[in-house]
Design a protein that fits this description.
The chain is α+β, with helices and mostly antiparallel strands and 147 residues long. It has 2 helices and 8 strands; from the N terminus they run αβββαβββββ. β5 and β6 form a beta hairpin.
Length: 147
């Protein structure tokens, strides 16, 4: 009996490990993104619920946020094996790593957002914007932080 319970527990743990290693899809069976309600409406967020932003200095499929910029605005990391789905695509960065993009615009989080639903980065320097359901990029208002 003890051996059987140990085998069941071991099989369960093995299955959990395998599930954790599966490919994360942009949208579908397993999602890397969600929509979170904020004081600015529903915004695109990562699976942890942190708001995602676009950067006006990026071009479609190209990130221009590196160095200190990427320290303040960490890229939404994608794996090479992740699959593009509809508006969710991968962008290859200069260092060979990948990040997620929405509608071709690379996505980032903001270091001064500390909890799900924070949108403190929206409008920073007039070039950082939330992604809403209504449009790919939203608010052009100035934010309270300077980058």
């Amino acid at each position: 009996m003890k051996n059987t319970v140990q085998k069941i527990v071991a099989a369960s743990l093995f299955g959990a490990v395998l599930a954790g290693c599966s490919t994360t899809y942009a949208h579908g069976h397993k999602t890397a993104f969600t929509w979170v309600d904020t004081n600015k409406g529903a915004v695109l967020a990562n699976k942890e619920g942190m708001t995602l932003y676009t950067f006006d200095k990026d071009t479609k499929g190209v990130s221009n946020c590196y160095g200190s910029c990427a320290t303040l605005w960490p890229p939404a990391v994608a794996q090479e094996s992740d699959k593009n789905v509809k508006k969710y695509t991968k962008v290859k960065r200069k260092d060979g790593s990948y990040q997620w993009a929405y509608d071709g615009k690379p996505l980032y989080t903001w270091v001064n957002d500390t909890k799900s639903g924070d949108v403190n980065g929206d409008g920073v320097k007039g070039v950082w914007h939330i992604v809403t359901k209504e449009n790919s990029t939203a608010s052009k208002a100035k934010g309270k932080y300077d980058y």
